[in-house]
Amino acid sequence: MHLFYIDSRDYSGSSWASEIYYSKSTDDGSFWTQPIRITDIDGFYSGSPNLVIDSNGLHVFWTDYRYGYTYIYYRNSVDYGVTWEPEQRITYYFPWGSSGPRAVSVNNVLHLVWEDTRNSGGDVTEQIFYKKYDPTPPTGKPTTPNIEIYDGESKIRWSWTKGNVYDAESEFVAYSAQIWETPGVIEDVEGEGGNGITLTEADLNVSYRIRVRAKTETYRYTDWSDWSEAVNIQQPLSKVRVYPNPLKYNLNNIVTFDDLSNDYATIKVYNIAGELVRELIKNTNTDYVQWDMKNEQGEQVSSNMYLYFIKNQYRSKTGKIAVIH
To answer: Is 68 within the bounds of a domain?
Structure first.
């Protein structure tokens, strides 16, 4: 035996706000399980529960007033009341109301009717609407988010596509995302939107990953995508220090390029004629590289003005070095 009922226990002093609770008995009503709430506490009315039982478990539809208008919601329990799947919103014709759901199951397909005011022209005249509803969750998931833009400092943008997701009920209308900061925790990204997201104030020395899921027009969600590759925000090249500059021989014959990021980088040094003098490679987990003032042939460079060009995967920087003998 399965029992759904309306209860206002969560709203002290309110005679209108209510939620829907569920209990069951396996011994013809002698004993009932501890009631569980199956609707969200939102301060509004949840009521008119309608139960359907088939080989896919328990199905309950109800009227919900959480957005200032009544809409039809649905939840399913495949193990007949032990656990419950996330709720799904069935109607969404703002600002018109829908209420009084009634459903039956035929060959494990749900057939739902309800009262609806979308064609009322603003009055309270209601009409009966019908929907054949397949409660099977959407399949597939969006593609793994790719890094579309990374300026090397504090701005990152990811993008993705719908991938192989499919829903027999409706089209996909929005995406939601989660972000994982390392070290840190996984957090939901506020709001929902299209197939891209931009982080504009990333912190230094923090790795960022994201994953996304698609939402249908009937508020059904796909599985989460795989996590994106980590983006580690490093020291921007605008902070690079080059010293000593100018360099005077016999005092110091080493020029240090310091405060580089940990990313792989190349440093090319040119003379004022634009000829390559020396190429330095930084491929270790350090933030500096040194030039011994020798050219590609191993010869000491002469007094002159030299230009350097620093480049990694995401950004570049140019500057000058003066060498004085």
So the answer is: yes
Instruction: Quote the pLDDT of residue 267.
Output: 94
Domain boundary among 215, 232, 249: 232
Q: How many independent structural domains does the chain possess? A: 3
Higher pLDDT, 111 or 155: 111
In this prediction, what percent of the chain has a pLDDT beyond 90?
Answer: 39
Residue 221 and residue 275 in one domain: no
Strands 247-248 and 316-324: parallel
pLDDT, position 127: 85
- Asked, for residue 47, whether it belongs to a domain, the answer is yes
Q: Is pLDDT of 152 > 60?
A: no
The contacts of residue 227 (CB under 8 Å, 6+ apart) are 144, 180, 209, 210, 211
pLDDT digits (tens, 9 = 90+) for 68-101: 788 899 999 999 999 998 888 888 776 678 899 9
What pLDDT score does 83 carry? 92
